[in-house]
Design goal:
The protein is of the alpha+beta class. Helices cover 15% and strands 46% of the residues. It contains five helices and 20 strands. The strands form five sheets. An eight-stranded antiparallel beta barrel has the order 5-6-7-8-9-14-15-18. Strands 1-2-3-19 form a four-stranded antiparallel beta sheet, with helices on one face. A two-stranded antiparallel ribbon has the order 4-20. Strand 16 and strand 17 form a beta hairpin. The radius of gyration is 42 Å and the shape is rod-shaped.
C-alpha cells in the first residue's frame, strides 16, 4: 500500500513540473538593423564611462600637431580625441584682399608755415588697404628752409629738396567699418638735400674786428625711422581726415667737416623727436564684396572622439593640451 502511495506522489510531481515548463515564455533572439549596429551606435553616442573604457583598450600616438590619436587594434581605424584638443578657430577676414586705395595731402606744414614756421612745404601720400587691416604706405614730399634764429648770428638755408618715406600701418578696427580707423605703423625715410649757412657774424673783442665767414653748400644723405600712431575718420563720401603722431630717430647721416644740418626735409628740425601730420584723403573702393561667412566645426560624434575624416583642417587650427 505504501508503494502505491509513493508512485502516486512521484507522478504528481512530474506532472506539475511539466505544466510549469509549458507555462514559461520562449524567447527567440531576433537580429534587426538596430541590434546589428548597436555596438557602433554606442560608440558614436559615447558616454564618459564608455569613452574612458575605449581609451583604456586602444593604442594611441601623438600626431604632428600634438593631438592624441587612438587606434582600434581590431579594425585599424584611427580616432582623434577632441576632449583633449583645444580647437582654435581662425577669425575670418571680413573685407577682401584689395579693399581700397587712397591718396592724401598733408596740410600740417602749410598751416604751420602760415603761423611762422620757417621750414617744410608739402607732403603727399598713397596707401593700399589689404583686408582693411594692413596698409602699405608711400609718402613723398618737398621741403625747404630759410631761418634766422632769434638772437643768433647766422641764416640757415636749404633749397627745395625731395624726400620719400615708405612703411606699413596696422588697423586695429579691421573688422569694423573702414569709415573709422585706429592704427599704428612704421616708416623708413630718406633724402639727399643741400644746405648752407650764410650771414655769419663773429665779433672779436681782442682784435676789435668783425668777421663774416660762410659755410658753403653741403650735400648730405640722411635716413631715419619713424613709429606712427593715428586716427582716421570719414568726413563726407570718399573724403576723410587723419591725425598722425610721429616719433622719429636718425639712422644714418653723411659726415661733414662743418657739423650736422639743422633741418632735414621730411624729418624736420633735428632737435625735435616728435612731430605730427594732418592729412585729407580721397578713398577709392576696389572691391565692395565682403566675406561674412562664419566658420563652424561639426562632428558626427558627440562623444568627443572625432574621426580624422571629420576634421576640417582648412578652416581650423588645432593645438593639443596634453594631459599631465
Amino acid at each position: 500500500m505504501k508503494a502505491y502511495i509513493h508512485i502516486i506522489i512521484v507522478a504528481l510531481m512530474v506532472s506539475c513540473l511539466g505544466l510549469s515548463l509549458k507555462a514559461q515564455r520562449v524567447i527567440t533572439p531576433v537580429n534587426t538593423p538596430q541590434t546589428a549596429t548597436q555596438p557602433l551606435n554606442e560608440f558614436e553616442g559615447d558616454t564618459a564611462r564608455i569613452n574612458a573604457k575605449i581609451r583604456s583598450t586602444m593604442k594611441h600616438y601623438h600626431d604632428e600637431n600634438g593631438n592624441i590619436v587612438y587606434i582600434d587594434t581590431i579594425t585599424g581605424k584611427e580616432w582623434r580625441d577632441s576632449t583633449a584638443m583645444k580647437i582654435k578657430v581662425r577669425q575670418p577676414m571680413k573685407y577682401p584682399l584689395m579693399e581700397s586705395a587712397s591718396v592724401g595731402v598733408d596740410i600740417w606744414n602749410p598751416l604751420m608755415r602760415a603761423f611762422g614756421q620757417h621750414y617744410g612745404l608739402i607732403d603727399f601720400s598713397a596707401q593700399v588697404s589689404l583686408h582693411n587691416r594692413y596698409k602699405p604706405t608711400a609718402e613723398i614730399g618737398l621741403g625747404i628752409a630759410n631761418n634766422t634764429p632769434a638772437d643768433n648770428n647766422f641764416t640757415y638755408k636749404s633749397p627745395l629738396s625731395a624726400y620719400l618715406r615708405l612703411g606699413l600701418d596696422y588697423n586695429f578696427l579691421y573688422n569694423s567699418t573702414p569709415d573709422y580707423q585706429y592704427f599704428v605703423g612704421v616708416r623708413f625715410g630718406f633724402t639727399k638735400f643741400s644746405y648752407s649757412v650764410e650771414d655769419i657774424t663773429i665779433n672779436s673783442s681782442y682784435w676789435e674786428e668783425v668777421a663774416h665767414p660762410t659755410i658753403p653748400s653741403q650735400h648730405p644723405f640722411v635716413s631715419w625711422g619713424e613709429l606712427v600712431m593715428g586716427l582716421k575718420v570719414k568726413l563726407l563720401g570718399p573724403i576723410s581726415a587723419g591725425w598722425t603722431f610721429r616719433f622719429h630717430s636718425i639712422f644714418h647721416e653723411s659726415k661733414s667737416q662743418y657739423g650736422k644740418p639743422w633741418y632735414i626735409p621730411g624729418y624736420g628740425s633735428r632737435n625735435g623727436k616728435i612731430t605730427g601730420s594732418f592729412t585729407i584723403s580721397y578713398t577709392l573702393g576696389l572691391n565692395k564684396k565682403s566675406s561674412e561667412s562664419v566658420i563652424s566645426i561639426e562632428t558626427d560624434s558627440p562623444s568627443g572622439i572625432v574621426p580624422d575624416k571629420n576634421v576640417d583642417t582648412t578652416a581650423t587650427e588645432a593645438t593639443a593640451n596634453e594631459p599631465e
